[in-house]
TrEMBL record, chain A:
Belongs to the globin family. This is Hemoglobin alpha embryonic-4. Pfam families: Globin. Keywords: Heme, Iron, Metal-binding, Oxygen transport, Transport. The keyword GTP-binding does not apply. It comes from Oryzias melastigma.
TrEMBL record, chain B:
It comes from Oryzias melastigma. GO terms for cellular component: blood microparticle; haptoglobin-hemoglobin complex; hemoglobin complex. Belongs to the globin family. This is Hemoglobin subunit beta-like. GO terms for molecular function: haptoglobin binding; heme binding; metal ion binding; organic acid binding; oxygen binding; oxygen carrier activity; peroxidase activity.
């Protein structure tokens, strides 16, 4: 459950990070590939080495989708409807991987925001990313 | 036997030489109690854990955070036999403290975030991977004596 204060905090953080979506996204993905090598299996068709164009554009896509969801968290199911279909019928990424990327996203935020990533922000963000992942997986079965 | 690369050994030693145990320990434990409030179930005797501010300023939480981080130092000094190093602690957490071992991962994740916030860009993806591998071995050793 997210309080009004938490939703505002989340919205503001992603608003601030949207201009650097590429960097944040690529960083989180790189961390996930390094710590959880199994996740690389979903990207065999792309060049996911550090600095690659694919990594940046893919990271950007992911972060912008998260930022879009953060704008109105109560409407997540509506906002994510097309992505739900994509993940369920085409990408079919095992949902346990969403947790891995969420964790790496939190680490990226910690490195980027330092002390600014307070325990309250961490808690709110963790809850938001869990909810986001849950909605994303809703059409799987 | 866990295989550690030279990079991983050096990275772990480096991280633990850089962090201030008196700051990181309390920060990690209080973050765990705030982000995963159900972990408070093990700290009924700690007094006021009512909100984030109370937890962050609670002296018992701070003291215990230091205990936990000092405990981690044992593994840093014995990277080639973490399993044996934590055998007694594992029994303690299982038989006496009755801690659900899934909680070890939650605390490990919070510690990762705290160290990341401190080290900033230095906590790059390879450093993170080494740190997480180390913590995974610690967590696995602490789970080992549960039956």
């Amino acid at each position: 459950m997210l309080s009004k204060k938490e939703k505002k905090l989340i919205r503001e953080i992603w608003e601030r990070l949207s201009p650097v979506a590429e960097d944040i996204g690529a960083d989180a993905l790189l961390r996930m590939f390094a710590s959880f090598p199994g996740t690389k299996t979903y990207f065999s068709h792309l060049d996911i080495s550090r600095g690659s164009a694919h990594l940046s554009s893919h990271g950007k896509k992911i972060v912008l989708a998260i930022a879009e969801g953060a704008k109105d968290i109560s409407q997540l199911t509506v906002t994510l409807a097309p992505l739900q279909t994509l993940h369920a019928y085409q990408l079919r990424i095992d949902p346990t991987n969403f947790k891995l990327l969420s964790h790496c996203m939190l680490v990226t935020l910690a490195c980027y925001l330092g002390e600014g990533f307070t325990p309250e922000a961490h808690a709110a963000m963790d809850k938001f990313l869990s909810a986001f992942a849950a909605v994303l997986a809703e059409k799987y079965r | 036997m866990v295989e550690w690369t030279d990079f991983e050994r050096a990275t772990i030693q480096d991280i633990f030489s850089r962090i201030d145990y008196d700051v990181v320990g309390p920060a990690a434990l209080s973050r765990c109690l705030i982000v995963y409030p159900w972990t408070q179930r093990y700290f009924g005797s700690f007094g006021n854990l009512y909100n984030a501010a109370a937890i962050s300023s609670n002296p018992k939480v701070a003291a215990h955070g230091k205990v936990v981080l000092s405990g981690l130092e044992k593994a840093v000094k014995n990277m080639d036999d973490i399993k044996q190093t934590y055998a007694d602690l594992s029994v303690l957490h299982s038989e006496k403290l009755h801690v659900d071992p899934d909680n070890f991962k939650l605390l490990a994740d919070c510690l990762t975030i705290v160290v990341a916030a401190q080290m900033g860009a230095d906590f790059n993806c390879d450093v993170q991977a080494a740190f997480q591998k180390f913590l995974a071995v610690v967590v696995s050793s602490l789970r080992r004596q549960y039956h």
